[in-house]
Amino acid sequence: METSEMIADIGSQLAALGTTVRAEQEKRYMKSAMRHHGVAVPQLREFARQYRQQFELNDADQCVALAAPLWQSEWFEERSLAILFCAGEAEELTPLQVTNLFEDWLQDIRGWAHLDSLCIEVIGKIGRNHKELWPRVFSWRLNGHMWTRRASLISLMQVVRDGSVDRDQLRATCADLSGEKEFFIRKAIGWILREGVRKELSGIDDIIVALGPKLSPLSLREAIRRYPVDKQAEIKRLIVDQ
Predict the structure, then answer these.
(1) How far, CA to CA in Å, does 241 sit from each of 6, 84, 103, 148, 210?
(2) 32 dihedral zone (left: phi>0; alpha: psi -120 to 50; beta)
(3) pLDDT tens-place string over residues 197-238
(4) Residue 174 domain-assigned?
(5) Alpha-helical regions (H) of 130-216
(6) Domain total for the chain?
(7) DSSP code of residue 221
(8) In the prediction, which pLDDT does 58 show?
């Protein structure tokens, strides 16, 4: 089947899977300007798995070749599938795909759902396997596009979770973005630090305390939320005493 035929086939199948009610709910919840079929995330993941199996999309080049035109779609779920197809081969992707394709996708993103999925399931895995990508990710914190700045944080999620994150990059990215007024940046700072707490990342207490005076109330509240109450009080005390 030609790529154009596969794109049309995917659109037809997603339209059959979705519901109008769910589509309207998703648009409201995400404040989305895209068109929605109304397909639930578990259904979409299973669809991606079965489609790859059916058409033997089992290498990175094939998945990227199908993902690229899917990303041009006006339908939310088709863009989501583009990410899922790439995620299925993320271990085989390289920084070249990030600079030649995914950076363009980042600039085209207008919401957290696609941003977080692309960063955690694709870019973060590439960076984990190819450490030479991290300086490029670090540079995104200065980008004029708010969602690309958020990507400089969320792309670190994989390596925060496995403990291999560069602590200096984590701290510097949070510090440089700490003055942001954008809710989704402030929230991302708190989330990435909270994930470090959840995974008991070595040195995370020191990072939060060092950043504390710069963090917005939202970022700090989110960062320490997983600590016991007495530990939260201790962290706040150490921040004030600096």
Answers:
(1) 61, 46, 41, 34, 11
(2) beta
(3) 999 999 999 999 999 999 999 999 999 999 999 999 999 999
(4) no
(5) 134-139, 146-154, 157-161, 167-177, 183-198, 204-211
(6) 1
(7) H
(8) 85
Distance in angstroms (rounded) separating the CA atoms of residues 222 and 194 = 6
- The label of the residue with tokens 């670190």 reads 156
Cα(156)–Cα(138) distance, integer angstroms: 10
Tell me, yes or no, whether 203 lies in a domain.
Answer: no
In a domain, 40, yes or no: yes
Domain with 3 in it = 1-92
SS3 content of the chain, % helix, strand, coil (to 5): 75, 0, 25
Residue 28 sits in a domain whose CATH number is 1.25.10.90
In the chain, % of residues over pLDDT 70:
100
Mean pLDDT of the chain: 96
Q: What is the DSSP string of 72-109?
A: T-SBHHHHHHHHHHHHTTGGG--HHHIIIIIHHHHHH-
pTM (two decimals): 0.95
Among residues 191, 194, 120, 175, the alpha carbon closest in space to that of 151 is found at 120
Reported as a single tens digit per residue, the pLDDT across 36-75 is: 999 999 999 999 999 999 988 889 999 999 999 999 999 9
| Torsion, Cα of 57, 63, 65, 71 (10° steps) | 130
Contact 236, 215 (CB under 8 A): no
> How far apart, in whole angstroms, are the C-alpha atoms of residue 242 and residue 238?
6
- Residue 120: C-alpha distances to residues 60, 157, 164, 215 (Å): 17, 6, 15, 23
Q: Can you tell me which residue has the tokens 């990072």? A: 207
Residues with Cβ within 8 Å of residue 131, at least 6 apart in sequence: none
What CA–CA distances, in Å, run from 134 to 148, 177, 204, 225? 14, 17, 19, 28
